């Protein structure tokens, strides 16, 4: 125990001796370490941030693309008109977006937006044959301005030029079915304004 001990020859007398210097040094070092930790913790303590003004969110190309679709915007002029309309209402997001982009970038956004919109339909159409597309067109409504008069006019053009209607129809059908091949192509020749373009333009 600490009360019973033996001293070696020449060892200093330990009776009523104060704490050794090494012990005091160790205690002091521990105290300093504790103070350093407290000091470090005090320094790293962060002050609460002040509530500042919220940063305004800018429009992204995706935002503008969605706007183009929702407003059915097809041209840059229509996009400019919408931006001006919103500016007059106190909204400047679209105006800022346009002014920070080049005309080429805006044109690319418009073009890409509508290309993506019609991509699935285009893929589905590419998988159909020409005759399938022709059949669908024949079952749908006429284009604006036609009023169902094209067929009658086409018959008159063929008759006026001495072309057999059934023969012409069969030639066009074979060309659509077989594609561009020798002895299957259809070529219409004649003077200007005789209806050549009129006969085949609906197939475009």
From TrEMBL:
<protein>
    <submittedName>
        <fullName>Uncharacterized protein</fullName>
    </submittedName>
</protein>
<dbReference type="InterPro" id="IPR027417">
    <property type="entry name" value="P-loop_NTPase"/>
</dbReference>
């Amino acid at each position: 125990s600490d009360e019973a001990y033996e001293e070696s020859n020449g060892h200093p007398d330990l009776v009523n001796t104060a704490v050794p210097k090494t012990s005091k040094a160790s205690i002091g070092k521990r105290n300093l370490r504790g103070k350093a930790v407290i000091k470090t913790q005090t320094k790293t303590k962060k002050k609460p941030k002040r509530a500042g003004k919220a940063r305004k969110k800018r429009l992204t190309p995706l935002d503008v693309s969605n706007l183009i679709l929702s407003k059915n915007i097809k041209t840059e002029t229509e996009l400019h008109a919408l931006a001006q309309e919103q500016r007059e209402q106190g909204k400047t997001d679209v105006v800022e977006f346009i002014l920070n982009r080049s005309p080429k970038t805006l044109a690319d956004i418009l073009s890409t937006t509508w290309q993506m919109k019609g991509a699935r339909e285009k893929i589905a159409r590419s998988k159909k044959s020409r005759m399938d597309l022709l059949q669908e067109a024949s079952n749908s409504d006429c284009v604006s301005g036609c009023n169902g008069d094209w067929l009658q006019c086409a018959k008159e053009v063929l008759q006026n030029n001495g072309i057999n209607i059934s023969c012409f129809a069969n030639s066009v059908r074979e060309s659509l079915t077989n594609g561009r091949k020798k002895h299957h192509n259809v070529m219409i020749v004649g003077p200007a304004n005789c209806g050549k373009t009129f006969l085949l333009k609906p197939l475009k």
